Amino acid sequence: MILSLAAAALAAAQAAAPQPFADAAAPPAAETRTDRAEVPATSGGWTLVVHGGAGTIRRDRITAEQDAAYRAAIDAALIAGQAVLAKGGSALDAVQAAVELMEDDPLFNAGRGAVFTHDRTNELDAAIMDGRTRAAGAVARLTTSRHPVAAARAVLRDGRHVMLTGTDADRFAAERGVEQMDPAWFATSHRREQIDEFLRREAGAKTVSSYDIDQKFGTVGAVARDTHGNLAAATSTGGLTGKRWGRIGDAPIVGAGTYADDRACAVSATGAGEYFIRVGVAHEICARVRLAGQSLQEAADAVMAEVLALGGSGGVIVAGPDGGSAFSFNTEGMYRGRMTSAGVHEVAIYNDE
What we know:
Layout: E1 47-55, H1 64-85, H2 91-103, E2 124-130, E3 136-142, H3 148-158, E4 163-165, H4 166-175, H5 189-203, H6 210-214, E5 216-217, E6 220-225, E7 231-237, E8 258-261, E9 265-271, H7 273-279, H8 281-291, H9 296-310, E10 314-319, E11 325-329, E12 333-340, E13 345-350
Parallel strand pairs: 3-4
Antiparallel strand pairs: 1-5, 1-6, 1-12, 2-3, 2-7, 6-7, 8-9, 9-10, 10-11, 12-13
């Protein structure tokens, strides 16, 4: 769906929402469909693609107000990244700008509005990667950094490591100017209700699915190609409702949930993280493009089919060095959008858009 939301739409009421995945089993695979709306190359221009998670996202489960709020939020993220790219800024800065906006939006399971762990805390993960140099930064289990993607960018800039975790990662970020918040700032009443429901179900059953609580994976991400021909990818998440034992999903794992290589493509994923790690989804898509000569859509569809065959579900957004882009998801919907310097401006939610 081509959509240019007016500025007023950006103030649409935000309804509670976000993510999870089954600790015990993957969400029902139902009828699988990959999105075929590949956008062709835009030589010399810029491209930006964003997502706000995939899952059982159907019109009969979302009110008109929620639909409008999600579309406005995705469009706002596009506008934030576009403001960077249209001025000749870097793909790296653009994906960070887009993701930071979504991290502040409690609609999504990233930053403020992240899901609760089994211990009723919020633990945040993120990664960012530069396709030109293949430099990357990742963080996991943050509890105070307002923008986990900014903390990941600080790791990338520092260059000595790729991933930092826990309180030490928050301290590292703070020392480099990343804004710190009281842990309570990330919590929302909607997420408290979700963890309460999760723990109630757990108390009455041997196993309980995180996915059953919210019916979607609320991870956020962005990929971009700038006017210099460089690619970048960024992904941020709060993980799974009820996660425990220090669980870390695919979002901050370079090559699984996030990857960028100017020779191939940039990828950000959302879905059942354990399966995306096992397949190495983001790198596998780029490898198929670079080494097998597949198109962005062919590669994305093939890898998502691998995920499904193992029992996982979710989706990916992809951008190529020629400015082309693609979505692929095997769920009933994915919050997604893209803009290009050639005038493409799309926001969509359901799998028939």
